[in-house]
Every structure is written in C-alpha cells, then in structure tokens.
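Progress note, sequence design subtask.
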C-alpha cells in the first residue's frame, strides 16, 4: 500500500534500506487497551488512509524563533518551546508572538534545555507538560495553563540522566491516555540495556508520573535499547513508530512494542540478531539525523536535521509501503527539528538553524505550515 506520492518519488540507493520482516518474525505493536484521559495533542487526529504534500511552497506562520524544539496546536495558534532560554512562546493565528513564561528550573547546555511539550485537558483544567534539562538530570514537569497564563512547575518524573548530548526529550500522550517519554542514553551507552535505568528508553506514565499499571517491567520503562529517540507518533491503526539517532552508520525508524529491546549499544541498524528488534527503515545519518515525527492516517512525516528535509512514509499494519519519499520545502534550506499535525489537518514544520549547528538566515527560525492532500 503506497501513496501516489511514494509511487512518483521513490528514493534509490543503499543509503536508505527498508526492512520488511516476514510474518513469523513480525510482532504486534498495538498500543495496550488501557483507560486514561485523552489528550488534544495525542495520537492519530481522527484521520485514516494515506496523505501527500499538496504543494512544496509552505506558508510561514512565524519567524525569529530562538532554538525552537517542539510545536503543538493550542486554541487558535501554537505553543513552541525554545530550548536554550526555556521560554514557551505562543504564536497566534495572525503570526504575532507572545512569550507566556519560562519553565522553572530549566538549565540549558549542549543539547539539553527545554524540549518536548504535550497538552492534557483534565475535567476542564488544561495542563501543559514539558521535558527539560535541570541542574543534575532531565525531567518531566507539568503546569496549569489558563488561556495564556502559565502556572507553577510541578515535577512528575525526575532522575532521567542528562549529558551534553543524547538527551532524548519528546513527549506525547498516546491513544491509551498515558504519557510517553523518550530519553537518550546520555552518553552512558550500556545504561540503554539496563531495565532499571531511565536512560536510553521510552517511558510510559500516567498524568501524575506514576508507572502505567501494565508496563512490562513493573517500572516506568516501556521499551529499551535506544540511543537517542527524539520523535514518535501513532498511525491510525494504533501502532507506535519512533525515530532514532544512530551513531556513525545507521539512523532508524522503529515499530515500538511493550518490552521491546532495540539493541543499542550492541547493534545499530538492521542486524538480524536474536533478542533485538530490527528497524523498519535505516538511513545514513547524512540523509536523516531524525528528530520530531508526526502521523496523519497511515502516513508518517519525519523531520531531519542533517538531512534538512522531511521523509514521507506510508505504512500498513506495522510495515512500510515501499521506499520513503524525500520532501524539501521550497525556499527553506533548514535543519528541521519537529513536525506536527495542525487542528485543520495540515502539516506543521519547525526549523532549527539557530541551535548552534545550523547556518541561520535573518528570518530563522521559522514555523511553517503545508497543506496535505489525501493520496
């Protein structure tokens, strides 16, 4: 099952490898059927089928953002996290920007600072969740959000190892109502294989930060063996996908299952080694270095930093439908940090040229929107 876009624009070459497991080795990755509050930022957005980019020319929603890391729709606009100064910026529908406050306790440095955002509406009270670097760790906090008034920060998960690099940082509420948190190995390579460490994992907690009751190891850990996951999303069939930075050889796109071991640091990329789950796609880091990811229906939109493009990937029942498609927005030579789905179903793109590794222009960084069409 491949979209019209994929049929028209398949990528060739050995630097992008699609792995299609046989039926015996393939495992189910459906989200557990559990109860919990749902989240306006979460999961599948109510869409199905395959989606393609309607026009390569994006609409600019905001310019002049400083080291932006995450974007989520809110009210008639967008909330953007800025990594280095710890600010939450609200971008209105007319493009005006309002700094609604700094998240308390953010300590920036290297690749750490203010990272992912997620929203939860709980009985009429809106909470904003954030992942950020603190003095000695990475942590997840929540704050009340009334209109544009940001409340005090309450830590719900602490003790996630932090380092100059490999800090993970993406958070989303899943279709099951639980909060999923991606962490990096924080340069502690072998901690990724330690079930009792929070490094190199995807965590799954309730709204207060407690372990989800059916987590596979009776702790916060949902999956392990990750080097640095900065993007994940659910397609319309409830399957969870995650993007992962490799070291020098392969970046990865994985199907995530409860208790799954994704191999780092023992293996990188498609290894075929017993006990580890191979990625569905692997890329050379020069073509990817993947960060945020969004899903609409059964199509994934993967933001890349070194690749400076989006990869558009059709999926079906946990498999990839043909080669992924490269998409480069016109007039936007940029590292792309995050991708999201707007409330109207269009695609949001957050550039990242001002994080110290890009080459910023006068307007960087930018929040962009691109229309999608059913394929």
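Output:
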């Amino acid at each position: 099952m491949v979209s019209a876009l994929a049929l028209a624009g398949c990528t060739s070459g050995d630097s992008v490898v699609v792995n299609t497991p046989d039926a015996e080795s393939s495992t189910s990755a459906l989200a557990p059927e559990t109860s919990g509050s749902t989240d306006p930022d979460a999961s599948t957005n109510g869409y199905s089928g395959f989606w393609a980019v309607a026009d390569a020319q994006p609409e600019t929603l905001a310019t002049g953002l400083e080291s932006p890391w995450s974007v989520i729709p809110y009210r008639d606009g967008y909330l953007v996290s800025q990594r280095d100064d710890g600010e939450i910026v609200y971008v209105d529908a007319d493009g005006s920007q309002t700094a609604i406050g700094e998240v308390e306790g953010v300590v920036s440095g290297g690749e750490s600072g203010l990272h992912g955002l997620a929203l939860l509406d709980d009985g009429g009270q809106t909470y904003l969740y954030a992942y950020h670097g603190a003095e000695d760790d990475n942590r997840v906090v929540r704050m009340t959000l009334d209109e544009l008034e940001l409340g005090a920060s309450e830590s719900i998960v602490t003790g996630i190892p932090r380092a100059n690099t490999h800090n993970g940082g993406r958070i989303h509420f899943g279709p099951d109502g639980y909060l999923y948190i991606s962490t990096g190995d924080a340069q502690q390579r072998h901690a990724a294989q330690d079930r009792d460490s929070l490094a190199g994992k995807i965590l799954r907690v309730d709204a207060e930060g407690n372990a989800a009751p059916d987590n596979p190891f009776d702790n916060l850990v949902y999956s392990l063996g990750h080097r640095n996951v900065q993007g994940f999303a659910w397609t319309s069939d409830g399957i969870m996908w995650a993007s992962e930075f490799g070291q020098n050889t392969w970046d990865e796109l994985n199907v995530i299952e409860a208790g799954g071991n994704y191999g780092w640091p023992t293996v990188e990329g498609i290894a075929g080694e017993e006990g580890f789950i191979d990625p569905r796609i692997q890329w050379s880091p020069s073509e990817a270095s993947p960060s945020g990811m969004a899903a609409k229906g059964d199509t994934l939109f993967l933001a890349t930093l070194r690749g400076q493009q989006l990869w558009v990937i059709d999926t079906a029942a946990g498999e990839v439908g043909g080669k992924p498609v490269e998409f480069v927005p016109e007039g936007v030579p940029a590292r792309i940090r995050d991708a999201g789905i707007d409330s109207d179903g269009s695609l949001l793109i957050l550039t990242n040229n001002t994080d110290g590794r890009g080459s910023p222009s006068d307007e960087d960084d930018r929040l962009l929107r691109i229309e999608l069409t059913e394929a």
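Residues 4-374 form a domain with the Neuraminidase fold (CATH 2.120.10.30). Work on this subtask will continue into the next period as scheduled.
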